[in-house]
Amino acid sequence: MARRLIGDGHRVLGFDRSPEVMAELASHGLVPMDHLTALPASNEPRVVWLMVPSGEPVDQCISEVRQILGAGDIIVDGGNSHYVDTLRRAASLASEGIRYMDAGTSGGIWGLEEGYCLMVGGSRDAVQVVEPLLKSLASEGGYLHVGSAGAGHYAKM
Questions:
Q1: Cα(107)–Cα(112) distance, rounded to whole angstroms?
Q2: Beta bridge partner(s), residue 104
Q3: Which residues of 62-99 are buried (b: 16+ CB within 10 A; e: fewer)?
Q4: What is the pTM of this model?
Q5: Contacting residues for 61 by C-beta, under 8 A, at least 6 apart
Q6: Backbone angles phi, psi at 81, to 5 degrees
Q7: DSSP 99-121
Q8: CA-CA distance, 136 to 41, in Å (whole number)?
Q9: pLDDT tens for residues 103-118?
């Protein structure tokens, strides 16, 4: 997904626990980060897109990045989280003004070349901010905003 975004002209900062993955992506233009919390400050909303296994790994990542995110920033869970967990996470982050979106993602290994199918849940204002990324990631007509946070993971289910 990072390679597809980079190929479409987006500046992508990334973190992975695997140095090999980081080196491979950096060779394609990814700006490597030493840790999730190395995200720079910005006057624009920052978008943190998580692609980690569902459950505790998502909660761990959120716990780390919420320390540096502020009102207006956006977290997108592109993994296969259970929609009930997505609802809980969205409510918890809303108290800090952090917008939470879910993007049920299909496409597998063909996504880089063919594009992904994305079922997106979140507020309209957050989706508008993330829409350029969605358009770059999705195949032609391959993403749909299906409702509020939780709806994307529910639709994929």
A1: 8
A2: 119
A3: beebbeebeebbbbbbbbbbebebbbebbeebeeeebb
A4: 0.95
A5: 36, 50, 52
A6: -70, 155
A7: EEEEEEEE-GGGHHHH-EEEEEE
A8: 24
A9: 999 988 899 999 999 9
